[in-house]
Structure formats: C-alpha cells, structure tokens
From TrEMBL:
<protein>
    <recommendedName>
        <fullName>Methylamine utilisation protein MauE domain-containing protein</fullName>
    </recommendedName>
</protein>
<dbReference type="GO" id="GO:0016020">
    <property type="term" value="C:membrane"/>
</dbReference>
<keyword id="KW-0812">Transmembrane</keyword>
<keyword id="KW-1133">Transmembrane helix</keyword>
<dbReference type="Pfam" id="PF07291">
    <property type="entry name" value="MauE"/>
</dbReference>
<keyword id="KW-0472">Membrane</keyword>
<dbReference type="InterPro" id="IPR009908">
    <property type="entry name" value="Methylamine_util_MauE"/>
</dbReference>
<feature type="domain" description="Methylamine utilisation protein MauE">
    <location>
        <begin position="12"/>
        <end position="126"/>
    </location>
</feature>
<dbReference type="GO" id="GO:0030416">
    <property type="term" value="P:methylamine metabolic process"/>
</dbReference>
Amino acid sequence: MLDAVREIQLPVLALLLLLGAVSKLTGSDTRGGASLLPVRARPWFTRAHGAVEVLVAGALLVLPGQVGDAGRMWAAALFAGGVVALFVLRRRDPEMGCGCFGGLSTTPIGWRVIARAAVFAVAAAATVGVDGSGLGVLGGLTGWHAAVIAAEAALLAALSPELGELTLRLARRERCDTRAVPMRRTLARLLLSDVWRASTAVVTSRRPLDVWRQGCWRFLRYAGRRDGRPVDVVFGVPLDGRRSAVRAAITDAETGATLSVFESRRTVQTPRFRREELRDVAGISTLGR
C-alpha cells in the first residue's frame, strides 16, 4: 500500500506541473512569486517558471530509479519554495492570488493553497527512491493505485479554490468583481430599494460625493444630516444579481462613528428607467465607475 502511494505520486505530480506550466506559458497573468520582482522581470520569470515545470514533469515521467531522483528532488524543492513564497505573498498582499495555475488562481492566498503546496512538497519528497518512472507506473496500474488517485483527487479538490473559477469559466459567466455593470442599472436597483426610501429624509446631496467598486459591490457615498449633525450615507449595491440585499450605513461625518447599519428587506425587479429619471433623482450623470 505504501509503495503504491509513493509510486502514483510520479504521474500525479507530473500532471499538476504540466497544468501549471501550460497556464503560465500561454497566459499573461503574473501573480504569485513573479509579483515579488520588478514589473519588467515578471513576464520573463513566469515563463521561465513554466519551462522549469515542464522539465521537472518530464523527469518525473521518464527518468527511473536513481537517475530520476534528481528530478524528484527538484520537484520537492520547487514545491517547498512555493510554500515559502506563498507565506511571503500572503503577508505582503493578502488580496493577491497565488498564480499557481495562471489566471485561474485569482482567489486570495489562504491556508488551503498553502496546505496544498505543502502536500505537493511532501508527495514529491516521498517519490525519492522509487524504482520506476511515472510512465512505468501508468503502464502497470493496480487497484491500490486507483484508490490512491481517488483519495488524492478528493483532497486536492478540497484544497483548490481554482475549481470555482474554472466552473464559472466553463459556464461562460464572468466573475461579479470584474463584470462590467452599468451605473444606470446600479442606480435603478438602489432607487427601488427600501433602504433608499428610508434614507431620503437624511440624504441632503443631489450627487454622491464618491462612487467606487469593491469586490462584488458598488458603493455610493452621499452627504446627509441627522439630528442636526452632518453625516455620510454610504449605500452598498450588490453586483452579483438580485439575491443580495442593498445595504446602507450612516456615519458621523466628523468622528467617523457608525450611527446606523441596515439593509433592504425585500428584492424587487429592476425596471428600465430613463437616463433622465436617474439623473434627476440621484444626481449622477458623469460618474461611471
């Protein structure tokens, strides 16, 4: 059983390395370790990294015994270095993706990704001393090998946030945090919400003081007045369809203290407002972020 676990790592790790290499060599994403380098060097590093992954994967597949141990140690070093790089990247920029599989690895680095790299490093180290090659293992698959592959696939699925991104792409859907959503649609949803109607007595500005996007939300900040004091009224309008509720927060303009936080109780259909109607009610004609 233990021998089967060690042997099957050769083709499994080779496949994973090839997938990572293809994503790096064919894409333009420079997340991950490349982001630690100067901007001009990042594309070159990403492609060099992909080329090294191809070479190491080839060694795992075709080189047997002691000759192949050099490639297996390279694989272990590659994954162990990845663990260190992930810790550094996570501290430097918690919102950055690992870049492990190119543009698919956009989810912020978390413990799942770090644990996955550590599992790969241990698996690669375990292959040192295996007599055969990866292709030889594939040619003589046994039931134990198949059982290990199934268990490892389940583990990798649990540790791989890229599967969600891949599912979205296969379904030809854009991520809500990168999807282009017209300001007109955001305004229509805001104006029909309970939150907007409950805030009209507080909002004093015709135009928002600021508009910005963060993740799957668009935020609009209006000036207001409550109990004789100036306040900021910030509306959060979700960009991920109609299930999430519109939210708002009222904060003291001088101290920044939060006075109220509330959200819409119900969701309504968004009709087709004319641009002039939206401009008259919300005072937005030039902000389109």
